[in-house]
Structures are given as C-alpha cells and as structure tokens.
C-alpha cells in the first residue's frame, strides 16, 4: 500500500510523490479508456472513439484518483472505476449533443454533426454498454451505485427538458438539475476512488459530499464560461446555451431581478435566440451584474466542497482538493 503520510517525510516530498502517483494513475486510466472505447469494427470504432480522441479535461477520473490517495491508489480497481466514470460521462455527451443539436464539442465537430443523430445516439449506447461491462468487474455494490447514478443523470436531464412547475422557483429548480446531471456523477467518481482504495468510511462519505458540491460548482462555472469566453478558450461556440434555449443561472437571475432596464433583454431571453441576435445579447449579458452573482453562487458551492473534506485523513490530499476547488472557479475554459 502506498502511504502518503510517512512519518518524518518532508511535506514537499510528499506532495511530489502524490503528484507522481496521480500522474501515473491518470496515464493508466487513459490507456484503459482508449482500449475500452475501441471496436474491432472500423466504422464503429471511428464513432465510439471520436470524443475520447478529442481530448477533454478528464476531471472526473482525476477526482476518482485523488480520492483514492486516501487509501491505496495503486489498486487496479481504482483505474477501472475511473474509466467507468469517464465512459459514462462520454456517453452522456453523445446524447446531450443530439438533444441540443450541438455542432461543436471539445473544439472539434460533434459526433451528431459528423455521423448523424442516430449514429451518435448508438455510439453513446455502446459506451454505456462498455461501462456496464467494466463496472461488473467491481462487484454488485458498484453496479448498484452506477445504476443509481445513471438514474439521477436521466432524471436531471428530464427535469431540465420539462422545466420547473408553474409555482416552482426556477433558480432552485436549476440547482436541482445541476445536482442531478453533474453533481451525481462526480459524487460517484469520488466515492468509487475512496472505496476501491480501501479508505475509511468517514473519508468515503466526505469524498462523496465533496464530489457532489464540486460538481455543481464545476457546472456553474462552465455555464459562465459559455457566456463570457470565446471558442478558443472553451472549445465551444460562445453563447451555445443561449442558442439552444438552455437556461443557466445567469439568465435565470436576470429574469428573476426583472429590472426595468432589462425588459428588452428579458424578452429576447424568453424567445428564440438567433445567431444574428447572439452578439448583441452576449454583450448585454456580459455587462449584467447577474454574471458576478452567478459566480458568487459557484464560489459558495466550491466552499461547500472544501468544507466537506475538512477532516479527511490525508492533509496533502486535502490541499490538492482545495486547489482544484479554486481552479474550478477561476478557469477560463
């Protein structure tokens, strides 16, 4: 077992050891991920490896492996768990891009734009199947948690698609959507890492709480980036959510404030946003105080994530997780 709390070992050396361990396990995860996405049928392989070859942050596997440093992060089960999580995430991206009619993903042509909607949906299904096969190696409890997580992902998408009830608070509804769609998978990523590394029950519970909170913060920050950055930073067309009619915390806060000077902007947000109108709307949104208000909400969720890991057993893991919270809020793409 790798022990990152060796008595008498200088803190800077422990930090270097932790970084090397995480780097090695991420490389092992990437190798297995590529293998698991592969199909011997050439045209299927082209579709199922399209997004994994486009890159991505691998944020969820990183959380799995960092959580595993609370135990023995070198266990093969940790790598398998990280791949299960990333496969599930990739599969949802194929399906999301079909629903959103997205043309760009990770700075490249989306699968639905390149191969068509039917092929993109089936490619996502293929990756779900591979994730299910791999999670079966991890035991019935892992299969059950994966199924529960998938249910939450679908519920979140349904909640977003249907929208809030007439008498519901749209902002609270939106946060619930983010918790289900994004927080749930990252919570499971963290729990898997700690569990399969043999961490204590207290550490496992703390990491699950951390994962859910940082997941919401991550998505809130991502939505702000969609409004404020250009495509070279984010890998997506700026204002994609506006064009697709997807509500974000910023646009909901603008509508909720209902300022007199915002009436034209609110009207535009409530109706179809066309590519012609997009630059004007982006300019108005970017100068609106709702941007900073939304960022403050994201900061609060990141602080909740930090608080969740206050008492975890490895202070070096804690420091790294705190830095991830800060980076999540401050990233540009």
TrEMBL record:
Short name of any one Pfam family annotated for the protein: polyprenyl_synt
GO biological process: isoprenoid biosynthetic process
Keyword field contains Transferase: yes
Needed co-factor(s): Mg(2+)
GO molecular function: metal ion binding; prenyltransferase activity
Gene3D superfamilies, sorted: Farnesyl Diphosphate Synthase (1.10.600.10)
Keywords attached to this entry: Magnesium, Metal-binding, Transferase
Family annotation (InterPro entries): Isoprenoid_synthase_dom_sf, Polyprenyl_synt, Polyprenyl_synt_CS
PANTHER family linked to this entry: ALL TRANS-POLYPRENYL-DIPHOSPHATE SYNTHASE PDSS1 (PTHR12001:SF69), GERANYLGERANYL PYROPHOSPHATE SYNTHASE (PTHR12001)
Family, per entry: Belongs to the FPP/GGPP synthase family.
The name this protein goes by in its record: Unannotated protein
Lineage of the species this protein comes from: unclassified sequences, metagenomes, ecological metagenomes
């Amino acid at each position: 077992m790798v022990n990152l709390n060796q008595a008498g070992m200088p803190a800077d050396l422990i930090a270097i050891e932790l970084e090397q361990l995480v780097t090695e396990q991420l490389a092992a995860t990437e190798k297995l991920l590529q293998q698991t996405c592969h199909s011997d049928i050439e045209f299927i392989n082209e579709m199922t490896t399209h997004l994994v070859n486009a890159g991505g942050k691998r944020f969820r596997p990183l959380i799995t492996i960092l959580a595993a440093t609370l135990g023995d992060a070198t266990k093969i089960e940790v790598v398998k768990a990280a791949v299960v999580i990333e496969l599930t995430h990739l599969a949802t991206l194929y399906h999301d891009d079909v629903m959103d009619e997205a043309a760009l993903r990770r700075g490249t042509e989306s699968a639905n734009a390149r191969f068509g909607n039917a092929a993109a949906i089936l490619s996502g299904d293929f990756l779900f199947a591979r994730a299910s096969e791999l999670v079966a190696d991890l035991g019935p409890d892992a299969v059950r948690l994966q199924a529960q997580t998938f249910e939450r992902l679908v519920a979140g998408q349904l909640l977003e698609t249907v929208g809030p009830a007439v008498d519901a608070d749209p902002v609270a509804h939106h946060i619930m959507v983010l918790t289900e769609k994004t927080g749930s998978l990252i919570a499971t990523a963290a729990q898997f890492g700690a569990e399969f590394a043999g961490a204590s029950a207290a550490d496992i519970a703390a990491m699950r709480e951390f994962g859910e909170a940082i997941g919401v913060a991550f998505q809130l920050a991502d939505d702000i980036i969609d409004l404020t950055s250009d495509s070279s930073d984010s890998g997506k067309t700026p204002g994609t959510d506006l064009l697709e009619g997807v509500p974000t915390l910023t646009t909901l806060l603008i509508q909720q404030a209902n300022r007199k000077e915002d009436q034209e902007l609110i009207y535009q947000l409530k109706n179809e946003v066309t590519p012609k109108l997009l630059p004007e709307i982006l300019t108005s949104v970017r100068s609106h105080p709702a941007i900073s208000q939304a960022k403050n909400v994201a900061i609060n969720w990141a602080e909740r994530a930090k608080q969740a890991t206050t008492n975890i057993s490895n202070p070096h893991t804690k420091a790294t997780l705190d830095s991830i919270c800060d980076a999540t809020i401050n990233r540009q793409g």
